[in-house]
């Protein structure tokens, strides 16, 4: 298994990426300029590919961005997508604001390609904290439109 990380803050050079003793082999992919990665959700100067995952401290210290395709990230996003997708459906979130979709072939919610790890994590926390969304109270001077069907 390979673990990919993007260098989003600076071009890859000496001292700009970790060389952990437990995973000394690293493959470097240099970009000529900063380019969009992860379905356009981030810009990167290049890729670092390891045989083992980096620690959260290493990712943070070197300002790297893990790939959504890393096994650990893919698993985390899959678990979050189940809770977020059910929350979006239960609360009738408009399709254009959803971060997930129902994949009928696997009978599960799947994160949309343009949904970032950060967006999904925030929505996951929201789904846990507020299982149902209630309508906002009216502000003074606001009027509700009349309801149809005698409701």
Secondary structure layout:
Layout (H helix, E strand, L loop, with lengths): L2 E5 L18 E12 L4 E9 L5 H6 L2 E3 L4 H20 L9 E4 L4 E4 L5 H13 L22
Antiparallel strand pairs: 1-3, 1-4, 2-3, 5-6
Helix pairs in contact: 2-3
Sheet-strand content, in percent, reads 15-25%
Order of helices and strands: EEEHEHEEH
Radius of gyration: 20 Å
Roughly how many Å apart are the termini? 57 Å
Strand order within the widest beta sheet: 2-3-1-4
Q: Number of folding domains?
A: 2
Q: Which stretches are low in confidence, meaning pLDDT under 50 for 5 or more residues running?
A: none
Give the count of helical stretches.
3
* Shape verdict: elongated
How confident overall, as mean pLDDT?
Answer: 90
Q: What structural class results from the helix and strand content?
A: alpha+beta
How many DSSP E strands?
A: 6
The helical percent reads: 25-40%
Biggest beta sheet attributes: 4 strands, antiparallel
């Amino acid at each position: 298994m390979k673990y990919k990380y993007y260098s989003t803050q600076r071009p890859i050079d000496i001292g700009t990426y970790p060389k952990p003793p437990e995973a000394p082999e690293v493959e470097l992919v240099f970009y000529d300029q900063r380019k969009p990665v992860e379905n356009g959700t981030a810009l990167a100067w290049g890729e670092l590919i390891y045989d083992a995952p980096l620690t959260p401290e290493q990712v943070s210290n070197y300002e790297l961005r893990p790939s959504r395709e890393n096994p650990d990230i893919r698993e985390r996003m899959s678990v979050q997508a189940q809770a977020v997708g059910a929350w979006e459906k239960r609360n009738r979130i408009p399709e254009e604001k959803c971060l997930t979709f129902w994949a009928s072939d696997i009978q599960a919610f799947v994160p949309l390609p343009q949904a970032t790890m950060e967006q999904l994590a925030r929505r996951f926390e929201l789904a846990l904290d507020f299982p149902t969304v209630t309508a906002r109270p009216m502000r003074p001077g606001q009027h509700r439109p009349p309801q149809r069907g005698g409701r």
